[in-house]
Amino acid sequence: MTIYDLKPAFQNLLRPLCKALANVGITANQVTVVALIVSVVVGAVFALYPSARSAALLIPIWLFLRMALNAIDGMLAREHGMQSALGGILNELSDVLADAALYLPFAFVPGISPSLVVAIVVLSILTEMAGIVAVQIGASRRYDGPMGKSDRAFVFGLLALLLGLGINLQQWANIALAIVAVLTAVTVINRSSKALQELSA
User: Going from the N-terminus, what domains does the chain have, and what CATH number goes with each?
Assistant: First the structure.
């Protein structure tokens, strides 16, 4: 069970907005690119001002909005005839790039271990690779947890929110990030094994 499992209910809430965007000519690829650009900008602001509470508060706000945009671009593609090979490439690459842009700046926050942040970003890339490679070997795109994209966004969003509120996390932040790193590594293994199980079944 991961936060990703809540996606269908979230999509239902966004469906009217998605339909309105399609009616005015907004494409899935445009939404994907905008989400990536804003993610880079927000991440750059946080990297430049890692001790500023206002910069930290941008992260949870944008992560929520980005989650909505990710759901919308998928619905635009599937439900409004906008699926394309380019869209598939943009979707996968932009997710990885946006995650890196938003999470790497945490390495500059005083008291947070840069090594843990970098490890999580690298492992996050591997989780998405594992999910994509599943398709290459003939299985379905794997989104298994326990630490998928939405779960990582929740943890980093909560961490940034607490920083933005001025709460002194001391060593708790590094303990939480260490747990995330372990669970992300488990996710890589889990997605790979589930893909192999799917093929054998």
Answer: 3-196 (1.20.120.1760)
Residue 136 and residue 129 in contact, taking contact as beta carbons nearer than 8 Å: no
pTM: 0.91
Could you tell me the sign of the dihedral formed by the alpha carbons of 169, 122, 36, 17, in that order? Answer: negative
Cα separation, 101 vs 105, whole angstroms:
7
Residue type, position 29, single letter: N
Question: For 24-51, what is each residue's pLDDT tens digit?
Answer: 999 999 999 999 999 999 999 999 999 9
Euclidean distance between CA atoms 143 and 7, whole angstroms? 12
Q: How many CB atoms sit inside 10 A of residue 85's CB?
A: 7
Q: Which residue has the tokens 């906008």?
A: 82
Q: What are the tokens at 167?
A: 């709460």
Cα 140 to Cα 96, 137, 167, 194, distances in angstroms: 19, 9, 42, 10
Cα–Cα distance between 30 and 32 in angstroms, integer? 5
Summarised one tens digit per residue, pLDDT across range 106-138 is 999 999 999 999 999 999 999 999 999 999 999
Render 105-118 in DSSP notation, one character per residue. Answer: GGGGSTTS-HHHHH
Q: What DSSP string runs through 149-201?
A: HHHHHHHHHHHHHHHHTT---TTHHHHHHHHHHHHHHHHHHHHHHHHHHHHH-
For 3-138, list the strands marked E by DSSP.
none
Residue 169: helix, strand or coil by DSSP? coil
Collapsing DSSP to helix, strand or coil, 111 comes out as coil
Determine whether 141 is exposed, middle or buried from the number of CB atoms within 10 Å of its CB (0-12, 13-18, 19+): middle
